[in-house]
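Form 7-S
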Amino acid sequence: MVLIDTPIWSLALRRRAPDLNSSEQKLVAALRELIREGRAQIAGPIRQETLSGIREPEQFRRLRDRLRAFDEPDIGAQDYEEAAHMNNQCRSRGVTGSPVDFLLCAVAQRRAWQIFTADRDFENYAKIIPLQLYRIS
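Output:
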């Protein structure tokens, strides 16, 4: 399974295809393939970030309904504790990140999922914590 991060969902659902450059088009194509394979996963914080900032109620409803097709894991105390531990590990090595980023790392790591993102911060985290990033070819 692959946890899809906000930047990938945003490219696919909030941007017009003609406005995407070639590397962004590859990311969207990879997302479509993961969806077809039934491997694409979402978590609550990603759902919230993806839907935030949408001004038009109809566009919000359309995106919300598309994302409702994806179940999300229950996030519990162990996920939050692991996120804090990962944050501490990275900070001790000079790498900082947001609490949401580390929560996503913990959710993915505890479930043996990969993370598919365009956020380069995750490359830095993966050098320190056990994190599997999804790579497109």
